[in-house]
Amino acid sequence: MEDQARGFVAMLESCFSELEDPRNENSCEHLLIDIIAITILGVTCGADDWTDLETFGNGRREWLEKFLALPNGIPAHDTFRRVFGMLDPKQFSTSLFQWTQAIQDATDGQLIAIDGKALRRSFAKRTGKKMLHLVTSYNRKLCLSWG
Fold it and tell me: What pLDDT does 1 receive?
């Protein structure tokens, strides 16, 4: 598992190598690649905002330390917000696209995209019924073969 995690970081480093870090090099406490990795992992696990990313990182710090440098620990939510606010959106978009293409190539298109939604107002507190959840999966290669 750790080898896969290191491979994930190596792929991120390669795909995001052209992304310019706009921060003052002398005052950076966190590596840009660590911030990006935690963000991608956190969002994949359901983080919706900067605070969620900090919470995700702190909750999985021991695991993240196995493959990220984290020289000053997990960045604060304000750090995530500030860094992403400074990044060039076009450069970031290009790097993110390169990363998704690299994943597609590495898996020979065998990835299955899974999306989950909580259906609003589908619960009933009085009767104890919990909210309904919908999970959708999509395999591009499978859909292309059906087309």
Answer: 61
